[in-house]
Specification:
CATH architecture of one domain: Orthogonal Bundle
CATH superfamily of one domain: Transferase(Phosphotransferase) domain 1
Number of strands: 17
CATH class of one domain: Mainly Alpha
Largest sheet: 5 strands, antiparallel
Helix content: 40-55%
């Protein structure tokens, strides 16, 4: 490639019959630009050259108006006059070079051609593109007075930042013109499947043609296909568009009768939108795809086209994504500031059939809300960035967003497990049954896309299942480590054991000194022994359960971490081969081949869910969770028992002290005691029954008892 000075010519970005777009990089500064050239005009007539020159200069001037608008590719200034002179002299045509900002992420057409987007883009990317294009069109129409007239995915380019995030920008104003005040006769321009019916029907149109193209692009982004029988002749397309009902959003050919065309009022099932958003999007789509351009261009109260005002509402919808692990089902709910957790739980119970009391929520580890509390709201659980689950984002950002924002589990002794059966489309089933007379390419492609959708959705379902189990194991491990139940039990057991041993020693010492005195009854002592042995055994048993749960949780985290990595990297149902063979290479698929592929998929799926990790992992984590929570429920009871036996031990201790001091000892014992008191008056005696008056003994015992009661309250709390 040629270079000039510090400017390195990288590659051609696009080339047509007369034009060329080139990518340049400055070796010194790293700056990148795109230059747009007309190579030569000799093959054009004089009138055509004049018209081309007018359009070219308009595009050059317009590009300078877009410098401060983020969603339109803008013209840039070059401070190197020699390089600019070189660019203008590259070709024979004497039209000035148009220097534009370079967008490094390709265009939306290439995104649609990616294998993962064969059935349309993710909802996150659809929203981002529509939001950017809506802003660009409103800016062009209202601020610049420009009608683009050639909207299509190829003309929406992507600027990717260092963080991997994308900004979508409208480009290529070669066919644009000033917006007429009224509908007027204009030339037929644009790309066949994107221009409005009025462009061909009578040639009278205005800027609302951009709104029609906007609607076509929106449908294509969501489904991966054009909406109106794109394989048919232009005549058939226009005739059907003119007479289609207002709420019709697509037209398909009847595969059993190729002379019959069917108006569609719903999206096909093979898309990646959430259910609440898809419902609102479908209603909105009828607005830009209205064949009546007058209704299409209606203005809202704020002088914004209704098409844009209604789109803004659905773009602001927050959809909380959930995976119910026991049902192996993805759930989606539109959440708002007014919605409560009670409202959300009611919806979940309705959709899953689980009892409200059995629901257990797990947030992904990196969730910004951290923990669900009684004050949490559904809106706080929504994380906008996590709507982006595309492989493209995973590749560029070097990180993987959780597949959903919340996981739901069932907590009971015997959990219920359901695995929804994949549903092959009616079209595919009829194709397999060889019920279609026609074997046209569009039909074969459609059944291949339907089958590919089933394969990719099942892969995604399994990834969500493994991720959910992994997150639950992590949350259990974290909870066990943070709560330190084992340490609390050990601490209380040591305190009780020490107090019990001290009391036993004290009792032996007292009985040795005063053998004639029975300080406590045998029944009282047997009760204490029985209670003590019971609580020590309970503590050991609960501690053992907790240790076992912690070990299992750690093992489960390790296992599911590895499995999660393998699943994300592995093509479980051979989707790549299927896509490459029948879509990329364009191989013809027969009913028997599609049937064989469906049977192989069914076998792989059965093995996965009935013999593999998908069978035993959910049961293992549910069993461990149930044991842990049942054990955890007994801990407050155990701590209360610790407190009760503390109180019992010190009540007996107090009783012994009071009993020992209530009756004066015999003279000899009293004299000996007095002697010992006199001898040791300089320092406290080690004998608990020496030199201790009754009032002091009671006060000391009560003080100790109060300390332990307070400790009991703290422990219990």
């Amino acid at each position: 490639m040629h270079s000039f000075g510090n400017w390195e010519r990288c590659r051609n970005l696009g080339e047509g019959g007369f034009g060329l777009v080139i990518h340049w990089r400055n070796r010194t500064t790293g700056r990148e630009i795109a230059t747009k050239h007309i190579k030569e005009m000799g093959a054009l007539s004089a009138d055509q050259q004049v018209k081309l020159s007018e359009r070219w200069n308009k595009e050059l001037n317009w590009s300078r108006q877009f410098k401060n608008f983020p969603h339109i590719v803008a013209g840039v200034d070059i401070e190197d006059p020699d390089f600019l002179e070189y660019l203008n002299g590259m070709f024979s045509a004497k039209l000035p070079v148009i220097v534009l900002e370079y967008c490094n992420g390709g265009d939306v057409r290439k995104r649609l051609q990616s294998p993962e987007n064969a059935n349309g883009l993710t909802e996150f990317e659809v929203r981002q593109i529509l939001g950017a294009l809506r802003k660009a069109l409103h800016f062009l129409h209202s601020q610049c007075g420009i009608c683009h007239r050639d909207l299509k995915p190829d003309n929406i380019v992507i600027q990717r930042g260092v963080d991997g995030k994308k900004i979508y920008k409208l480009t290529d104003f070669g066919l644009a013109r000033g917006t007429p005040d009224q509908t007027m006769v204009q030339s037929v321009v644009g790309t066949r499947h994107y221009y409005a019916p009025e462009v061909v029907e009578n040639g009278f149109y205005n800027s609302t043609v951009d709104l029609w193209s906007f609607g076509v692009i929106a449908y294509e982004l969501v489904t991966g296909e054009l909406p109106f029988i794109p394989h048919q002749t232009l005549k058939n397309i226009i005739l059907n568009l003119i007479k289609k009902p207002a709420k019709c959003i697509a037209i398909t050919e009847d595969p059993e009768d190729n002379t019959r065309f069917v108006n569609q009022f719903e999206l096909p099932q093979t898309h990646h939108l959430s259910r609440p958003w898809a419902a609102q999007f479908t209603k909105w789509l009828a607005s830009p795809l209205n064949s009546n351009y007058k209704e299409r261009g209606q203005l809202a109260a704020n002088n914004v086209p209704v098409v844009f005002a209604d789109l803004d509402k659905i773009l602001n919808m927050n959809v909380l994504t959930i995976f119910a692990v026991n049902n192996c089902e993805r759930l989606e709910y539109a959440v708002s500031a007014e919605m409560t957790m009670k409202d959300l739980i009611a919806l979940i119970v309705l959709d899953t059939g689980m009892d409200e009391k059995e629901l257990y929520f797990v947030l992904p580890t990196s969730h910004p809300h951290k923990t669900i509390t009684p004050k949490s709201t559904p809106l706080q659980l929504y994380v906008e960035e996590w709507s982006d689950t595309s492989k493209d984002s995973r590749k560029w950002t070097k990180r993987s967003n959780p597949p959903v924002m919340l996981y739901i589990f069932q907590v009971k002794k015997e959990c219920d497990y359901k695995i929804p059966e994949p549903i092959l489309s009616i079209l595919s089933r009829k194709f397999i049954a060889n019920k279609f007379k026609t074997k046209e390419r569009w039909l074969q492609k459609r059944v291949v896309l339907d089958m590919l959708y089933v394969l990719t959705k099942e892969q995604a379902r399994y990834e969500m299942l493994v991720s959910g189990i992994n997150e639950r194991a992590l949350s259990l491990e974290d909870e066990m480590m943070e709560n330190s139940f084992i340490d609390s039990i050990d601490k209380q057991r040591i305190i009780i054991s020490f107090a019990y041993d001290q009391l036993t020693s004290l009792l032996k010492e007292a009985q040795a000194k005063i053998p004639s005195r029975q300080l406590i009854s045998s029944a009282q002592w047997e009760k204490l022994n029985r209670n003590y042995n019971f609580i020590i055994q309970s503590a050991k048993s609960i501690r053992s359960f907790l240790e076992a749960c912690l070990r299992e949780a750690k093992d489960m985290v390790k296992t599911t971490n590895q499995l999660r990595k393998e699943v994300c990297e592995k093509d479980l149902f051979d989707c790549a081969r299927f896509y490459k063979k029948y879509l990329c290479n364009g191989a013809i698929i027969s009913p028997s081949e599609l049937n064989n592929d469906a049977e192989e998929f069914a076998k792989s799926r059965f093995k996965l869910y009935n013999e593999g990790e998908a069978r035993h992992l959910p049961k293992s984590i549910d069993h461990m969770h149930y044991l842990y929570f049942k054990t955890k429920e007994s801990i407050p009871v155990l701590l209360q028992q610790f407190c009760d036996i503390k109180k019992e031990i010190f009540q007996i201790n107090l009783q012994m002290l009071m009993s020992a001091s209530s009756t004066p000892p015999p003279k000899l014992e009293l004299s000996a005691a007095m002697d010992r008191l006199a001898i040791s008056s300089g320092s406290p005696s080690s004998d608990p029954f020496d030199s201790l008056r009754t009032i002091n003994a009671i006060e000391e015992a009560e003080r100790i008892n109060n300390i332990l009661v307070n400790e009991m309250k703290i422990d219990h709390y």
